[in-house]
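Could you join me in thinking about how sequence relates to backbone shape in a protein? To get us started, please write out a protein record for me. Would you write everything just below, so we can both look at the same thing?
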Amino acid sequence: MPDTDLDAFITGLPKAELHLHIEGSLEPEQMFAFARRNRIDIPFASVEDLRAAYNFTRLQDFLDIYYQGAGVLRTEEDFRDLALAYFERARADGVVHAEIFFDPQTHTDRGLPFRVAAEGLLAGMKSAEERYGITSKLILCFLRHLDESAAFATLQAAEPWLDRIAGVGLDSSEVGHPPEKFARVFDAAGAEGLKRVAHAGEEGPPDYVREALDLLHIDRLDHGNRALEAPDLVTRLAREGMTLTVCPLSNLKLCVVGNMAAHPIPRMLDLGLRATINSDDPAYFGGYVADNYRAIAPFVSKADLVTLARNSFLGSFLSDEAVTHHLDTIETFAA
């Protein structure tokens, strides 16, 4: 198939995105626009200077600038506009459903009430469904470099919005902050009926994946690359049908892999794992979800691309009826 045909196939393939940090979709142009809107000084002279700073060698390099960028988000309008900008790009990439992360502690720790981010994002999600027909769910993430009590405080602050929040997650600096640190707050979230997901096995060891499974009782595993180092863990993930939300361009940008040819997605599929393709923090890592499909496309088959899209719905928190509808749409498209 010529590249132009493959590109059109990837763009048109109906897909869900399950690993997207909405603050990580803040493009440099938006950062400057929000800074002007809110009269905030940022330590970059231009968009070009800001993009030049996106030269990461590890996760922490990225996180430092990520938290700095989030500081320009001050109002419900900012969060709504941020979400709508993401959904507009997602629509162009063939995304019909997205389950997006947000980091309330990033905002409450700088004095914003919980409602500012929550109401702004929910308004953007509602508008996106009305305008583009894209459905979405919101997942509250705890910052793992903070302590358990801060996570409990965040869960308590979220209580008025829990009927509109689908689940909780765990992100930020992985190494040195094992999942067991948050077992009790994940239990509390589960008792509220929330789904549970967690970043594990990106930079952290395979044991972090085991802890996420056994102690956090996750419904979905974010990243999970290093699980491949433990054959028994791979077997367990495959047998349990655990969805892995894998992020190729993020892995490349953060030096988790040396080059795309070394990316584990093809091996994950060969091993029977329910891998999915996602963009993570696309403004910082060089591409949205279709760009991630294109990055891995030279190393997998067209049938694999269809499998990855199918997996994105099978691993979603949509109803069985909605998932069946999307799988039928994929089958019709790919026929």
Summary: The radius of gyration is 19 Å. The longest helix spans residues 114-132.
